[in-house]
Design goal:
This protein is α+β, with helices and mostly antiparallel strands. The chain has three helices and twelve strands, in the order E-E-E-E-E-E-E-H-E-E-E-E-H-E-H. The strands form two sheets. Strands 4, 5, 6, 7, 8, 9, 10, 11 and 12 form a nine-stranded mixed beta sheet that branches. Strands 1-2-3 form a three-stranded antiparallel beta sheet, with no helix packed on it. The two termini are 36 Å apart. GO terms for molecular function: ADP-ribose diphosphatase activity.
């Protein structure tokens, strides 16, 4: 495929809708629509484990696009240069917890058929005996409604399925990471 033309169909405060024209190898012209953010296309998702209890941290957050609450992980846009600092800031803001980075994934495309966003998955550890983590206080923005939920590893699948049964949406990350293909 070779890109021939690109035009912005709509541009708002946070996203734009683009139509791109391509020429295929056999000479056909095709059009494709995609969405991109206007400020950054980099994001981070933080998968956190509390120690010593070995509970995992999930969030339940309202998302207007689906008009529902969804179970996922703390996440956010990366607008600065230091991914670790941005990840720990998002963790602190959304959950109140102070963590320590244990690992970082390579750059991943979350939905390349539609979005230009890239994601880095960060593994974090939270020392729940640290004085700062004894009474975590979220630092939410006005438009955020986030509930922090801690779940033991062995209970994650049942928790996710129970939440879905109640009508809560399930993010792709929790199922991929904790339930995988062997759990259908």
């Amino acid at each position: 495929m070779k890109k021939v033309e690109e035009k912005v169909m709509y541009k708002g405060k946070w996203i734009s809708l683009k139509e791109t024209t391509y020429k295929t190898e056999n000479g056909d012209e095709v059009k494709w629509e995609s969405i991109e953010r206007t400020n950054t296309n980099k994001s981070v998702v933080i998968v956190s484990k509390l120690v010593p209890s070995n509970r995992y941290l999930f969030i339940k957050q309202y998302r207007p696009a689906i008009d529902n609450y969804i179970i996922g992980f703390p996440a956010g846009l990366v607008e600065g240069e230091n991914l670790e600092e941005e990840a720990l800031r998002e963790l602190r803001e959304e959950t109140g917890y102070k963590g320590k980075i244990k690992g970082i994934s390579p750059v991943i495309n979350s939905n390349a058929a539609l979005l230009t966003d890239t994601v880095r998955v960060v593994s974090a550890e939270i020392d729940e005996n640290d004085e700062e983590n004894l009474n975590p206080k979220q630092q939410l923005e006005a438009e955020e409604e986030i509930e922090v939920i801690l779940v033991k590893r062995d209970d994650v699948k049942a928790f996710l399925l129970e939440e879905q049964k109640k009508g809560t949406a399930m993010g792709i990350g929790p199922w991929y990471i904790f339930c995988g293909l062997d759990n259908f």
